[in-house]
Design goal:
Rossmann fold, 7 helices, hydrolase, Isochorismatase family protein, Isochorismatase-like_sf
């Protein structure tokens, strides 16, 4: 069964940039999964440091209003990997998920780490590159012209272990003419 993992769509991240395009694509993917009665699992990152925008008891740690109405399962994590010391593995097993689609924030941290961890655990993984976002940019990494989403997508794609698609490719591969993801 296919399942969707929506990573860290929280106020403390979304409010630090212009993510309307990414959020729109994320919502489209979420709706596809819900229409097909496939599980949609949201991850929330909690930090224990009060100064963090994702401090566990802050407004920043809450799911962003744009997508929180779609959350049927919400799990908590404290590291970039959605699997490390969380209930994700047992939840996926209970739901019968063997193919995990990944969208959310931050592309080069939590999304990438989770994709690799999912592959390591035997899941088929599809990473929808343009349905991820990041608060970082080329200046953050002192790498002029760096397109973080494209770079991460290329690295994962070249691994030949993780399927990397943009939203249009996802539609073509998983919806096709039938308009049905599955």
């Amino acid at each position: 069964m296919k399942g969707l993992l929506v990573i860290d769509v929280q106020n403390g991240i979304v409010n630090h940039g212009e993510f309307s395009e990414e959020l729109s694509l994320m919502e489209n993917v979420i709706k596809d999964f819900k229409e097909n009665k496939s599980p949609v699992i949201f991850m929330r990152h909690f930090d224990d440091v009060e100064e963090s925008s994702l401090y566990k008891d802050s407004v920043g740690s809450e799911l962003h209003d744009s997508l929180k109405g779609h959350a049927e399962y919400v799990l908590v994590k404290k590291t970039p990997s959605s699997f490390y010391n969380t209930e994700l593995s047992s939840t996926l097993e209970k739901l019968g998920v063997d193919h995990l689609f990944i969208i959310g924030f931050n592309t080069e941290f939590c999304c990438m780490f989770t994709a690799i961890a999912a592959f390591d655990r035997g899941y088929k993984v599809t990473f929808i590159e343009d349905a991820t976002g990041t608060v970082n940019n080329d200046e953050t990494y002192e790498m002029k012209g760096l397109d973080i989403k494209d770079f991460v997508g290329t690295v994962l794609h070249w691994s030949e272990a993780i399927e990397v698609l943009d939203y249009e490719e996802y539609i073509e591969v998983y919806k096709g003419d039938k308009g049905n993801v599955f």
